[in-house]
Design goal:
With 82 residues, this protein is an all-alpha fold. Helix content is 66%, strand content 0%.
Length: 82
């Protein structure tokens, strides 16, 4: 699994979890859901995403790294013609 796919999965799980907690436990959990949305929004502009940084530290690779390993064209590399 790549960092990009793991981020979508992590974000989705966190939004579902905090929504359920807000529904069944305490409405203040919606603030955490709002924080998750804000973090997604700001990372689209700044390219700074703490969960992505942590996933890279745990050994997950980006889509570009995986493409280079499997013979695909990485950033700045020509495609291989078969």
């Amino acid at each position: 699994m790549s960092v990009e796919r793991a981020l979508f999965a992590f974000g989705g799980v966190m939004v579902m979890l905090t929504s359920l907690l807000a529904l069944f436990h305490n409405a203040l959990w919606t603030w955490f859901t709002l924080f998750i949305g804000f973090n997604c929004f700001q990372s689209s502009f700044t390219r700074f995403c703490p969960p992505a940084w942590a996933m890279k530290k745990f050994g997950l690779k980006t889509e570009a790294q995986m493409a280079v390993e499997h013979g695909g064209a990485g950033p700045g590399q020509p495609r291989q013609v078969l």
